[in-house]
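Field log, afternoon session.

UNIT: design team B
ACTIVITY: writing a sequence onto a fixed backbone
BACKBONE:
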């Protein structure tokens, strides 16, 4: 079993910063501290309204990551909105970006809450995935844990799927926990069976992360923001990242 990578989503750091005009807390400083603590990647979701990550943050973080060539930069968002323009500017400047995660958010949506639908979304996704591949980028599709949809995600050209884990997180500690874990395990295995790699994210935390990775096969990466940044308010970035890495390591047999 390969170790699952931890990508820290910095949206909530930017959200706090944006409440004032002082530039604090610094998104790049947060990224630096998380990388120094061992996080394998950084994730941002630059929405069109810039309510958290701003367009200007994206190249600043990319320039930071030039000093961390063994770490990954994941940029997520709706490719029908601003995502492809933001990523294309990095590519044109030859700044690092490794993965784009396509998320079917509506503009102004509170948070990501569902995955792509097949076959309905296939015609619009295919040329965008081809464009990202032309830039040399890995493409992950934000997906519900539906085993029957994984072959369609592969057929449209995706390299990975990111399983939307809020249903699992909501079920944690309830009688439905085992049912949700089995559902996610089935979806992940279906993805692996058709040649997709598997990411996961949304409301994963230090309580539920170990069980998820232990029982859901082949999770290559977890992207964690809200819970991790909330923990960091109490513990600090370094201690928090190290504890999430401990949770990941504890899932290994």
């Amino acid at each position: 079993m390969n170790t699952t990578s931890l990508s820290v989503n910095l949206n909530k750091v930017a959200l706090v910063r944006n409440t004032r005009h002082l530039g604090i807390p610094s998104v790049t400083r947060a990224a630096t501290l998380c990388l120094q603590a061992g996080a394998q990647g950084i994730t941002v979701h630059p929405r069109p309204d810039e309510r958290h990550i701003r367009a200007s943050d994206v190249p600043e973080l990319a320039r930071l990551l030039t000093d961390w060539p063994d770490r990954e930069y994941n940029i997520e968002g709706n490719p029908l909105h601003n995502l492809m323009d933001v990523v294309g500017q990095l590519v044109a400047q030859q700044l690092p970006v490794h993965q784009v995660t396509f998320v079917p958010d509506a503009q102004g949506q509170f948070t990501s809450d569902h995955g792509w639908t097949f076959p309905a979304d296939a015609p619009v996704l295919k040329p965008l995935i081809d464009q990202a591949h032309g830039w040399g980028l890995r493409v992950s599709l934000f997906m519900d844990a539906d085993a029957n949809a994984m072959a369609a995600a592969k057929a449209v050209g995706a390299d990975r799927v990111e399983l939307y884990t809020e249903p699992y997180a909501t079920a944690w500690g309830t009688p439905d926990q085992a049912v949700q874990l089995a559902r996610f395990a089935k979806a992940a295995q279906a993805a692996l069976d058709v040649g997709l790699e598997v990411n996961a994210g949304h409301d994963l935390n230090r309580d539920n992360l170990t069980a998820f990775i232990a029982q859901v096969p082949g999770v290559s990466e977890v992207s964690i923001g809200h819970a991790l940044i909330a923990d960091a308010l109490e513990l600090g970035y370094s201690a928090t990242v190290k504890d999430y890495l401990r949770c990941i390591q504890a899932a290994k047999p």
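LOG NOTE: The longest helix spans residues 177-193.
NEXT ACTIVITY: expression trials, pending approval
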